[in-house]
Amino acid sequence: MESKARGILLDFDHTLFDTDRFFWVDLKRALARFGIPDDAWEKSYEAIWSSGYSLAKHLEELARLGAVADPPTVQAMREALESAFSDLRPYLFPDVLEFLDTARHRGFELILLSFGDPAWQSYKVRASGVTPYFTQIVYTAKEAGKAALCAERALQYRELYAIDNNPADLDAMKASTPGLQTYLICRVEPSAPEGEDPLVRDRFREAAKYLTIPSLLTHLRCHSLKEVSLSWPN
Fold it and tell me: pTM (2 decimals)?
């Protein structure tokens, strides 16, 4: 019997959550107040990001590099930062809650597929207040792991959408699930990648990198969730 359910697979970072403003602007600025210089921040981030970012790993790497004095200081910094950033709702893009409400009202089940360290991703999702909107929340620390997760869920839905800012992830998901309706969302201001101001570059630091990844398959493009049509194409 064919399923009558409709689902939307949503990415978190740079799709629902303004990750660069949180991470590269505000969190970086908060660490600077603890005396962490920019070069140590950059070097420590580059050392640990590929294994799945977490604040704990970042602080441990800063300690290893000698930018933080001792383990008690690391723990004190972690507690202070987690307290300062306990409410991450302001980092949701302005169109997110209206879209999630509308989609649920129209009968869609919402599934969050998020890449990264599960504990760190769970912290951001929970602190941003979106957990109640989703019927499923899945974290994967495996590169290109979303495609297998998408294929596993495809048979449960008559209609299935995917919205993501990463062309490679959308390509892999669409290849694994040919009937998938895909939206490639870009939250980067058009002039940002060419800007000379380092603060502007940091504001879109990671999101801008996805502009250099070619799309091998065809996806609908948008800059806002308001552009996503919730009417299945004929």
Answer: 0.91
